[in-house]
Design goal:
- Keywords: Hydrolase, Protease, Serine protease.
- It comes from Lutibacter oricola.
- One of its GO terms (molecular function) is serine-type peptidase activity.
- Belongs to the peptidase S51 family.
- InterPro entries: Class_I_gatase-like, Peptidase_S51.
- The protein has a single domain, classed as Rossmann fold, CATH 3.40.50.
- Strands 3-2-4-5-1-8-9 form a 7-stranded mixed sheet.
- It is globular and about 50 Å long.
- It is of the alpha/beta class.
- It is built from 7 helices and 11 strands.
- Helices cover 25% and strands 19% of the residues.
Amino acid sequence: MKKLLIASTSTVHGKKYLEYILPELSLFFKGVKEILFIPYARPSGLTHKAYTEVAKTAFEKINIEVRGIHEFENAIDAVNNAKGIFTGGGNTFLLVKELYDHKLISALKNVVENGTPYFGTSAGSNITGLTMQNTNDMPIIYPPSFNTLGFINFNINPHYLDPDLNSTHMGETRETRINEYHTINSTPVLGLREGSWLAVNGSKVTLKGDLNARLFQQGKAAVELPSETDLSFLM
C-alpha cells in the first residue's frame, strides 16, 4: 500500500529547513534508519552534494540518515533498495528531465506503489501528480514528457498564493493561470498553501496542516477545503 507525504514547501517563514514538519516526518518514517534523497531539482543551483547536506542536517534531528542518489553507482538500484525516499524542491523541469534521463520514473512508481514511503516538497510534490503542468517554475530545460509519477489522480500546485488585495499589480493571479489550464485539461488541481501537506495511505488522501487548500476542477467554481478534509474522492 502506497504511503506518501506531499508537502507544499520545505521551509515556512521563521523556521529552518523542514523544521515545521519534522514531528510528522518522525512518525511517517518510523522504523526507517536511512532514506534516499533525490536532489535533482537543485534549488538556486546547489550542487547535488550541497543540497544533500541540507537534507542531512534536517533529518539528523530525528535520527534518520540521508544518502543522496548521486552517491550510488546505480541510481535504479538505489531506488529499488531504498527504505524511504525524499525528493526535494527546486526546479520541476530540471527534476523531471533528470528522472527521465536516469530512467527512474518506472522504478519510483514500482517501489512506492509497493509500500516504500515517499516524501516530497515543492517540485518533489509536483511529480506525485499525473503531470507537472501546474508547476510554478520557469522552463529552464525541456524534459522528454510532462507526465510524472501519478501516485495521485490529480495535480498539485504547491506554494499556492492568494491575490494580494492591497497590490496594484494587474498581472495574472495563480487562480487565473489554473483556470487557463482547465480550458484545455480536465485534471483537477489542488492549490497547496505554505505549511500544508497531503497524507496518502493507499487510496485515502487527507489534507493536513493549519491552512485550507483550494480545489480547482474543470467547469466548476474553485472551493476552499479545510484541514482534515478527505480528498479520496479525487482518486
